[in-house]
Amino acid sequence: MVSQWIVPQWPAPKNVRAYVTTRAGNFNQAPYDGFNTADHVGDSQVVVARNRRLLQQHFGWSREPQWLNQVHGATVVTVEQAINLAADACVSEVEGAACAIHTADCLPVFFTNKQGTKVALAHAGWRGLLQGVLENTLACFAGSDCVYAWMGPAISQKYFEVGEEVYSQFVQATPSLQVMFTPVAAGKYLCDLYGIARYRMEQRPGCTVYGGEYCAFGDSRFFSYRRQPVTGRILSLLWMDSCQ
Question: Which tens digit of pLDDT belongs to each residue from 142-185?
């Protein structure tokens, strides 16, 4: 259906399915081309609804993914709850029930336990990172000794300039994160979103982190809000098939 997917390179169990969309295809008109499923960015609601139906048909889901109203916070919901809740992470222990996250520079983070019986997907911009969205998501794996995480396409440090207010909040909370910020001018820094996320997740014993090699801003395959403020969104999807 979609001509090009990004498939995470991580040691997830075989029943764990994970995909990231690109702009490949001719499903949407500019500036939302070529494949957008976000319904909050000004795109045609008819086209977005059609694209969501195409996804459901393509993967054979019996239900819609757990679409979220992402608010740059740290709330985690489950796939059993209503869709479009104000939250920035979703956890599933239900086979065939997909978690979904939209991004366009922020970081999507995929999680699974070693057994493939629980998965989670988080939206981590700098605000969510600061509030603890990744820690809250990892807390859902309290009974798991081994958790794998994969960081999907986000803006790289080269392009992610932030101000003193962002730098000071992170460094005051965790002084060791100072190394994740490169000064470029008075009160301006290049922020390593991937590095901060990796550091925070690796504080959790048993969490092994993969990914972080893409740049949503620098790679034209991806939507980027900083590159093009009116645009679509990258879609990250994660679910479990039957273990049998």
Answer: 989 999 999 999 999 999 999 999 999 999 999 999 999 999 99
CA angle 77, 80, 86 (to 5 degrees): 35
Give the tokens for residue 122.
């988080």
Supply the pLDDT for residue 192.
99
Higher pLDDT, residue 161 or 82: 161
Nearest to 136 by CA among 148, 147, 122: 122
Q: What angle do CA 79, 207, 61 make, to 5 degrees?
A: 25
Number of residues that this document lists for the chain: 244
Average pLDDT over residues 194-207: 98
pLDDT of 3 higher than 50: no
Query: What is the average pLDDT across 40-63?
Result: 93
Note whether 17 and 238 are within 8 A (CB): yes
pLDDT at 96: 95
Query: Do residues 51 and 35 touch, judged by C-beta distance below 8 A?
Result: yes
Phi, psi at 34, each rounded to 5°: -100, -15
The beta-strand segments (E) located in the chain are 5-6, 16-21, 68-69, 76-78, 85-86, 89-92, 99-103, 107-113, 119-124, 147-151, 161-163, 181-185, 188-191, 207-211, 234-240
Taking a C-beta distance cutoff of 8 angstroms, is the pair 151, 209 a contact? yes
Superfamily of domain 5-156+212-240: CNF1/YfiH-like putative cysteine hydrolases (3.60.140.10)
Residue environment code for 37-49, b if the CB has 16+ CB neighbours within 10 A, otherwise e: bbbebebeeebbe
